[in-house]
Design brief:
The chain has about 150 residues and is α+β, with helices and mostly antiparallel strands. The chain has five helices and four strands, in the order αααβαββαβ.
Amino acid sequence: MDDIDRAILRELQTDGRIPYADLGPKVGLSASAARQRLQRLIDTKAVQVVGVTDPMAMGGQAMALLGLSVDGDPRAVADELSRHDEVVYTVLTAGTFDLFAEAVCRHPRDLLDFVNDVVRPIEGVTRVENFPYFGIHTHRFFWNVG
C-alpha cells in the first residue's frame, strides 16, 4: 500500500460514495486510475466496501461497550452474546477484560435490563463493566491509514 492508496482510503472514510470523477483528482489520479486502484485494493482484500448503519439514527438511544471477564473460554460467551440483536459486535481481547461487546438498545432502561437479565446470567461471565456512550453521532470510525 502506497501513499496514493492511503489517500484513496482517507477520502472514502469521509465519503464512501464519492464518484471516481471526484476521487481521482483529490488523490492526484484520473477517474479511471482511481477506480483501478480501488478495485485492486478490493481484489487483494485490503479493503472491503460495506454499508455501515448508525445505531442512533435507527432508533437506538442507549449504546455501551461492555467489558466482560469470563471464567473459562470467552469464545463461548462471545458466541452466546452474538445471538442477541442488541449486540453489534464482540471481540476477544488479551487485556484486563476477556472480551468486549458493543450493545445498542432503544432506551437506557432496556440497556440496563439487557446487561442484568441477559449478559450477567450467561454461564462463565464473572464481571461486566458498562462503558456507555453519550451524544448524537458518536459512532463514526476513522482508521489511521497513514
